[in-house]
């Protein structure tokens, strides 16, 4: 898929002519058998459930799903009989027209594939529904001013779509950054990690990183790191005869007394008591 910026650049070069706008409520038996699409069209599902099959690949048709169909694409569509589909659709023609180095360039739709094709998930569905409603109302009217307004609304529709994709990408990048630092902590918990260093690794401010980490993971970054270290220490206390200082050092604590306080705060038991409870041989406090 193109980036939001690339998508905007491509759409900016197109002159789009609307052929048909509509709103459809399907009955429980609605089904369109496989057929080759003749016109470019976009569909926004707003209610119900169903299945759309595009060139042999099945996709869920439900609220928040946006479909772009291109000529030649073989499409089969059907509704769930218990939850009939409701959707808006728009059929269009376009040509690519832009100025480059003081020369106008013209390309037909056959020479310039439409930059959207297939299924997309939308998060700001209400705004797109509103714009589709307005387009549907204006489709029933005539006049040059109405045609101009339809063009403006369609551009606004695509702008909203691009903004939605961009917001999803930012959220996805942020989630990936949080998960990356989570993985880093799992692999480097024994090292002297700091909140500032983890936030820098994620490319976020300390406060923003801390807030998002807790939102996605359920712990603050430092609490998560502490639990990783304590969990590893539990294993060492139960399965080994290492000295307490060695165990503390192996999970990232240079001070075994501080480690003991942290361990008791998390588990409710001192390391010595935890070891006594879970294995026969007690851990030693010798240095």
UniProtKB/TrEMBL annotation:
Gene Ontology MF terms in the entry: DNA-binding transcription factor activity; sequence-specific DNA binding
Top-rank taxon, per record: Bacteria
UniProt keyword terms in alphabetical order: DNA-binding, Transcription, Transcription regulation
Residues annotated as domain HTH araC/xylS-type: 179-277
PROSITE patterns on file: HTH_ARAC_FAMILY_2 (PS01124)
Family matches, as InterPro entries: AraC-bd (IPR003313), Homeodomain-like_sf (IPR009057), HTH-like (IPR037923), HTH_AraC (IPR018060), RmlC-like_jellyroll (IPR014710), Tscrpt_reg_AraC-type_HTH (IPR020449)
UniProt protein name: AraC family transcriptional regulator
Species: Paenibacillus piri
Higher taxonomy: Bacteria, Bacillati, Bacillota, Bacilli, Bacillales
């Amino acid at each position: 898929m193109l980036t939001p910026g690339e998508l905007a650049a491509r759409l900016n070069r197109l002159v789009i002519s609307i052929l048909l706008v509509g709103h459809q409520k399907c009955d429980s038996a609605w089904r369109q058998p496989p057929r080759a699409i003749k016109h470019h069209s976009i569909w926004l599902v707003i209610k119900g459930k169903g299945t759309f099959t595009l060139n042999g690949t099945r996709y869920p048709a439900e609220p928040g799903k946006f479909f772009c169909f291109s000529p030649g694409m073989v499409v089969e569509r059907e509704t769930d009989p218990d939850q009939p589909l409701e959707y808006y659709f728009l059929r269009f023609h376009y040509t690519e027209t832009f100025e480059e180095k003081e020369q106008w360039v013209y390309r037909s739709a056959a020479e310039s594939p439409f930059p959207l094709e297939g299924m997309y998930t939308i998060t700001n569905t209400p705004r797109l529904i509103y714009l589709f409603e307005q387009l549907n109302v204006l489709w029933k009217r005539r006049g040059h001013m109405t045609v101009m307004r339809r063009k403006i609304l369609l551009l606004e529709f695509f702008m909203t779509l691009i903004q939605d994709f961009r917001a999803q990408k930012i959220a996805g990048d942020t989630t990936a950054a949080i998960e990356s630092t989570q993985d880093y902590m799992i692999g480097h918990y024994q090292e002297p990690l700091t909140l500032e260093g983890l936030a820098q690794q994620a490319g976020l401010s300390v406060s923003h990183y801390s807030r998002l980490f807790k939102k996605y993971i359920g712990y603050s970054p430092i609490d998560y790191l502490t639990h990783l270290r304590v969990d590893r220490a539990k294993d060492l206390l139960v399965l080994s005869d290492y000295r307490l200082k060695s165990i503390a050092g192996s999970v990232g604590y240079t001070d075994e007394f501080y480690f003991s306080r942290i361990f008791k705060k998390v588990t409710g038991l001192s390391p010595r008591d935890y070891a006594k409870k879970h294995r026969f041989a007690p851990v030693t406090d010798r240095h």
